[in-house]
């Protein structure tokens, strides 16, 4: 490990759903042993850290974000021994593993909640947020707008309303309870002792509720999270806390504290703006949001992504931009969910390899540690006929054989159908085919990962925009110590030619790193002129 900067600052993450990855025992459901069998694949792809979606016992009303036992493994996925083996096997390959830590709520099936609702004197009653009326905290917005009408639900057994920010089957925990807080420390200790390298902390803005506020990002929340961080620093250095706060950059900034709260935070607002830039052929929205993104402490890092397991969220855009995004990227109402779009990367970008790689070029060269969502490295399709967000959580496609090589079960038994249709034929969209085909999306993404890892400048360097008269070209430098990158992206379908500005310091023997081509062979005609073809991008390294 490089001692000069923390590992996560230059890491590439890979997000996967155990259910969807590989079924080792033929019951139609992916499992932990299956993930172990595919670690060689992940090593070959070159990623550094796996982020596992929730693996705990759960009624799966929110795909595991509704936890019924914080100390176990869902029986569909295996056992604690399997989990331990996964962590050990990953570590043996220098891969790290982080898990989802759902702090804000449990399942209504959790024994704490069952005890709390049926017995007013239960020691767990105060683990949840109860009220005699549903009129409290009126300023808190509803997040799952398509299903929930209130953040309060009446519980007949309890004779009170309980508070929930997500599905009504996910009662919020009460962080005003010292006993509950102590439980949370117990939970993180348990998983850290099992060897996990950190947590992706779910839904952290909502931990506390206070009258007269929107119940998001409250000071009490930061105080609690700082306690968690102190505990980690004192007992488990080198582990990471990644903050899921779908908020504006200035509201996420406090989650880094003075380097004493989260190590990492998702940069939500940059994501939809990459899609805006691609569709409008104009980098302005991305530049604007990055320009207004505050500095973060030196040991902190943003996490960036193009897609994840949820809908492509449009919470962090204006109403006008949201309507435009829906119109451009989700013309069929079935593609929409809550304030977002429930589609995968490849279908969103018309399955055009040039656009898919251009989006990845931005992801891998703008500030932040990138996350690849499983299946996007082979441009998997989606299934808008499945409910909720399930259409972007279908089985990983390993080969052009039965069940895409995901499972030996009868196809009817799979937890979700494999995607195979004329636009997204399985014969083409599977790992084996793409590994065998030079220049496939898989190979291109793998090259980007390799270049990222070998060059700390892309992870750690500062960002400087290079003004060009044409906003259809996104040009910037990333600089770290003696390493400088000139990144030039043509966001449009047109061929673009421009004169290299006098102040760009690119020697003619500089090399475009994705193709290994020397710059002077890229220069067309006149020596100081660069031509970019449709959606072409150049990663030129100097020094
Ligand atoms: C955010 C997760 O990404 C999402 O999948 C989940 O439904 C909510 N948090 C509630 O836990
Ligand atoms: Ca299985």
Q: Strands, helices and their partners?
A:
Layout: E1 13-16, H1 18-21, H2 32-37, H3 39-45, E2 49-52, H4 80-92, E3 96-102, H5 111-118, E4 130-131, E5 152-155, E6 160-163, H6 178-193, E7 198-202, H7 219-235, E8 240-243, H8 249-252, E9 264-266, H9 270-280, H10 284-291, E10 301-305, E11 312-313, H11 319-329, E12 336-337, E13 340-341, H12 345-348, H13 353-365, E14 369-373, H14 431-435, H15 441-454, H16 456-460, E15 462-465, E16 473-480, E17 483-490, E18 496-499, E19 511-512, E20 517-518, H17 519-522, E21 529-532, E22 537-542
Parallel strand pairs: 1-2, 1-14, 2-3, 3-7, 7-8, 8-9, 9-10, 10-14
Antiparallel strand pairs: 4-6, 5-6, 11-13, 12-13, 15-16, 16-17, 17-22, 18-21, 19-20, 19-22
Helix pairs in contact: 9-10, 13-15
Bound molecules: 1-deoxynojirimycin and calcium ion.
């Amino acid at each position: 490990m490089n001692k000069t900067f923390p590992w996560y600052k230059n890491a590439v993450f890979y997000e996967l759903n155990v259910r969807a990855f590989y079924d080792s025992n033929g019951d139609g459901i992916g499992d932990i042993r299956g993930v172990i069998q595919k670690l060689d694949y992940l090593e070959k792809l070159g990623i550094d850290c796996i982020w596992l979606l929730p693996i705990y016992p759960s009624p799966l009303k929110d795909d595991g974000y509704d936890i019924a036992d914080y100390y176990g493994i869902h029986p569909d996925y295996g056992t604690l021994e399997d989990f331990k083996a996964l962590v050990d096997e990953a570590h043996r390959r220098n891969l790290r593993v982080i898990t989802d830590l759902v702090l804000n709520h449990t399942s209504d099936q959790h024994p704490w909640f069952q005890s709390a609702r049926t017995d007013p004197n239960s020691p767990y009653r105060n683990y949840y947020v109860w009220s005699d009326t549903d009129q409290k905290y009126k300023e808190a917005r509803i997040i799952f707008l398509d299903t929930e009408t209130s953040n309060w639900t009446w519980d007949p057994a309890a004779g009170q309303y309980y508070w929930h920010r997500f599905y009504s089957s996910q009662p919020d925990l009460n962080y005003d309870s010292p006993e509950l807080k102590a439980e949370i420390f117990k939970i993180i200790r348990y998983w850290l002792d099992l060897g996990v390298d950190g947590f992706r902390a779910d839904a952290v803005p909502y931990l506390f509720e206070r009258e007269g506020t929107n119940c998001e990002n409250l000071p009490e929340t930061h105080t609690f999270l700082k306690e968690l961080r102190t505990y980690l620093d004192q007992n488990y250095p080198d582990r990471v806390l990644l903050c899921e706060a779908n908020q504006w950059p200035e509201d996420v900034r406090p989650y880094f504290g003075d380097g004493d709260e989260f190590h990492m935070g998702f940069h939500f607002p940059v994501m939809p703006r990459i899609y805006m830039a691609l569709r409008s052929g104009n980098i302005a929205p991305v530049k604007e949001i990055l320009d207004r993104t505050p500095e973060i402490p030196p040991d902190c890092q943003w996490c960036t992504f193009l897609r994840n397991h949820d809908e492509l969220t449009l919470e962090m855009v204006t109403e006008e931009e949201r309507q435009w995004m829906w119109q451009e990227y989700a013309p069929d109402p079935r593609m929409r969910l809550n304030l977002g779009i429930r589609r995968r990367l490849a279908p969103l970008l018309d399955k055009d390899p040039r656009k898919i790689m251009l989006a990845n070029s931005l992801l891998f060269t703008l500030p932040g540690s990138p996350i690849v969502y499983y299946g996007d490295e082979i441009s998997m399709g989606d299934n808008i006929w499945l409910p909720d967000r399930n259409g972007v959580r279908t089985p990983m496609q390993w080969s052009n054989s039965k069940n895409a090589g995901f499972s030996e079960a009868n196809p009817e038994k799979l937890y979700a159908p494999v995607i195979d249709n004329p636009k997204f034929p399985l014969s083409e969209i599977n790992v084996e085919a793409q590994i065998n085909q030079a220049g496939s999306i898989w190979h291109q993404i793998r090259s980007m990962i390799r270049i990222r890892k070998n060059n700390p400048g892309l992870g750690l360097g500062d960002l400087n925009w290079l003004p060009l008269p044409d906003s259809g070209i996104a040009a910037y430098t990333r600089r770290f110590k003696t390493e400088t990158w000139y990144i030039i992206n043509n966001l449009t379908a047109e061929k673009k030619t421009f004169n290299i500005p006098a102040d760009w310091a690119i020697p003619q023997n500089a090399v475009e790193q994705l193709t290994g081509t020397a710059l002077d062979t890229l220069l067309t005609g006149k020596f100081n002129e660069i031509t970019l073809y449709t959606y072409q991008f150049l990663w030129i390294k100097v020094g």
